[in-house]
Amino acid sequence: MDSSKPYGPSLRVLLLGESPYFGGITSHLVALAEGLREQGGITPVLACLSGRGPDRTLFDLAAARNMDVLEVSMRGRFDVSVMNRLCALAKDQSIGLVHTHNYRATLLAAAALRHLPLVVSCHGVAGPSVPLPVRMWQALELRCMRRARAVIACSEQVRRDLPAHGIPATKLSVVRNGVPGPNPAAISPPTGALRKSLGIPGGGPVVLFAGRMVEGKGLDLLLEACAQRREWTCVAVGDGPARPELEAMARRRGLEVFFAGMQADMTPWLSAADVVALPSRSEAYPMVLLEAAAHGRPVIATDVGGVSEIVENHKSGVLVPDPAGSDTVADLTAALDLLGDAQLRAEMGQYARTRWQAEFTPAQMARSTAEIYRAALKSPF
Question: Of 200, 264, 202, 265, which is closest to residue 236 (Cα–Cα)?
Answer without folding.
Answer: 200
